[in-house]
């Protein structure tokens, strides 16, 4: 496809975008009407929304449109999974400049579609408008399949803390990219295209998880949300947290403690949950800490002591080169 | 509240926004977790999304933040109603500059909340990020209550075309505003704050509507979407379309045929539907035309003849001072 978004025109662009969509049996009415209709067999629907801006959440010189689509879908679908639900659908609100090559939004849609397919969901609708800054607003929907939603608020003292998925890979990839490198590829790819363990969310609900979230702001920060909502303290055991050799090597090369990436790096969308102490967890879950009664210590500690850098307020100025810019995190119902 | 969004900080702003929300019994889990949970008793959920940009869809010197909130919610909730569903929830994706007064997003939220209350819905979640252009991305959800969704595709030759709600009021108000006036207030208010007849959507479904949409791009354009999807022609009878005296007076004052506003003006979010010819419609519905077999004529005619200006492609340059800028209209599942 040649030309710009402006040359293609609104209706031409919408045709191109919708032609790329693969429906699932859950989609009763897809794009093209006033609204979409998606099955919600549980009689409850789980919904979350996020906004990504060019320059703030992605860079076109670092990520292809396809990667941005994969990532935008992934971070929203991970929010659905982190409630214990199975993702069913996403809707796309898209702002594009008229001079943008028309391939950018169509490749974005390819990425959205493919990530949806990984999670078992489908793109069901959207809106496209012209504006100065590329903006990708995603809303994801999901179904609980008769499970009770797992919130951040149910962790109990005595519970274990367990995680599944990748930790610190995206942050390490970001550190590499900010220094002008494009490798090691595995980490750069992890930054461009996270791989949330979608299946683990509903599985954790079935295993009796008492609290759950996906790791989007960083493990310590996101566990802080659980600790806050559950009114508990969480202590992590650094000895139980694996750092891959290759990540250590990057840390040495760039002069950063890789534990920083693992504990503070977000955007990998690992799933972290608390479980009753007698739970039998499948092998892909790793117990990394325990839930304690609240104390004078910070809500999340590592080896019983405060961990320095835990948190991200992107309206403030606490960002640094080790931490990629992120969207508003714990926004109402739309936390990452 | 004093200060800017930047001074308030991300978490402070989120606190302010969520404190303004009024939940309904349909909200099982509201703001503050990875995702919201909303009841969907019908086992299907209706979903639509729209994006509004400052400068393109609203102007801060013409509309208060409260009005923008009312309007943003209204246009999305109207999409839900136009499927025959009852609105249940909206999610907000919000981009705000750091230097924006903090009262702007909080008053926006007040507007969203109040419009949701009119429709019986609630704000259940969102995301807030910092950026240059104020952007309001809304996703609305709804429940069909065992009705079948009414799409744009079911109109049959012989059906009557009926409308309920306001037509041309927003466009007349826009014409007034573009000329530097602030009155007549009723029309300016209609532009700032549409009043979609939400109840009429599910009611029309119950009355056996064969096709339905809300009027967001203009009556002729939106009926064109029905005609296209239903593969029919629609003929409107100009004698059946009332023009209020006050609107005629404005037309005379500014030199515009008010029929232009009624037939091409969008954003009032009236609901237009087709019904079998023997339908008994309540008094608030007005029959304005009929559904015919397709012919060589345009898909929508007025008194059997083509009507000049029908359509809006906001990526193109067909806007003029009589037509307010609008968002992408018939976007997949997110048509206005």
Automatic annotation (TrEMBL), chains A, B:
SUPFAM superfamilies, A to Z: PurM C-terminal domain-like, PurM N-terminal domain-like
InterPro entries reported in the protein's UniProt record: PurM-like_C_dom (IPR010918), PurM-like_C_sf (IPR036676), PurM-like_N (IPR016188), PurM-like_N_sf (IPR036921), ThiL-like (IPR006283)
Binding locations of Mg(2+) 2: 50, 79
UniProt keyword Nucleotide-binding present: yes
Signal peptide (from-to): none
Positions contributing to Mg(2+) 1 binding: 49-50, 127
Chain spans, region Disordered: 311-336
Associated pathway: Cofactor biosynthesis; thiamine diphosphate biosynthesis; thiamine diphosphate from thiamine phosphate: step 1/1
Chain positions recorded as substrate binding sites: 57, 267, 312
Pfam families for this protein: AIRS, AIRS_C
List of residues binding ATP: 126-127, 152, 216
Catalytic activity as recorded in UniProt: thiamine phosphate + ATP = thiamine diphosphate + ADP
EC id: 2.7.4.16
GO biological process: thiamine biosynthetic process; thiamine diphosphate biosynthetic process
Job of this protein: Catalyzes the ATP-dependent phosphorylation of thiamine-monophosphate (TMP) to form thiamine-pyrophosphate (TPP), the active form of vitamin B1.
Family annotation (PANTHER family): THIAMINE-MONOPHOSPHATE KINASE (PTHR30270:SF0)
Additional facts recorded: Reaction mechanism of ThiL seems to utilize a direct, inline transfer of the gamma-phosphate of ATP to TMP rather than a phosphorylated enzyme intermediate.
Family from the record: Belongs to the thiamine-monophosphate kinase family.
NCBIfam families assigned to the protein according to its UniProt record, in alphabetical order: PRK05731.1-4 (NF004351), thiL (TIGR01379)
Protein name (Swiss-Prot/TrEMBL): Thiamine-monophosphate kinase
Organism: Streptomyces benahoarensis
Gene name as annotated: thiL
